[in-house]
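Thread: Newbie trying to understand structure tokens

Hi all, I'm a second-year student working on a class project, and my supervisor (Dr. K.) asked me to get a predicted structure for one chain before our next meeting. I've only ever worked with sequences, so writing a 3D structure as a token string is new to me. If someone could post the tokens and maybe explain what I'm looking at, I'd be very grateful. Here's the chain:
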Amino acid sequence: MKYSIFVFHLYFIKIYLGVYEWPTNEYYWLTNDLIQNVYQCSRFPGKCTFSSERQINVKNHEKICTDQQKIESEQVVLGNEKRVMDELIEYTGLTSNMRDYRVTNFIVYDIETLEQSPAEYVDDDEGRNVKACLKLATIATASNIDGDEPRYFERYSSEPEDEQDLVNQFMEHLFELVKKHEKTVPREIREELMDLSTKISKEYKKPKEKRQTKQLMIWNRSKRQLMSFMKLNVYGFNSSKFDLPILLPAIARYCHLNGIKLESMLKKQTGYMSVEVGLLNFKDILGFTSPVRLEKYLKQWNAGEAKSIFPYR
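---
Reply by user tm_fold:
Sure, no problem. This is what the structure looks like when written as tokens:
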């Protein structure tokens, strides 16, 4: 049945009248349930929810509608525009040819775990909300340091001491890479760091009233900045909420037994965004990008995704 619709506006109220053929003198009053007031995008049902009371708006939208989202990050400069190296050149003995020096060495790692029933660890009354208890099984590492090859560490058994032994091997390998990294830091930076340490030590030996307080503050800040070049970043994907909470107890015990200081620990809600262990700085790569799954993150950088054969399965 074909009919035409006429809309009359009476004091901001819409009245819908319909006719079967035109011209005619017979009109029909159409109730609101017979009128389609809202048009919706039909390109991606279930995904796109765009709608409008004007059909032309929906048609224009469908021309550009897509099921892919483009995220563009906006970088804003805050604080002093002077770079760290500019301050070091100004306040220390570094020469201007060090202005563009950057640390390019880094390590990446990933762990695999085995799931076990919570009943093996806790009483039923306490473990009702626990979905799984994870046991560390393997750790894999790789770096861009010259001469380093990807390494793989495997747990020998389910005994607690074997988990600690696994983490010990992992940490010893990382500190070996730190030594290699230190050799790549320019000699000028290492010598300036030693010189600053000597100056600061001598200044603190003076009576408090005779110390150069302002100069001491500048030296300490410059020393921290120079030390950052000696540190080696260790990145994991989503490590703040998964890898680090599993590794930290064993890492802390390793540090305690070897006299290594846990320098700092930066948390964001329940995640560990940064953990400094000696000259190692564990970070989550998701802290430097938009929230994304691993496969999409790799796709952004045209990197392939592959899983090896796990020997413990």
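A couple of things are worth pointing out once you decode it. The radius of gyration is 32 Å. The first strand starts at residue 4 and ends at 10. Feel free to ask follow-ups in this thread.
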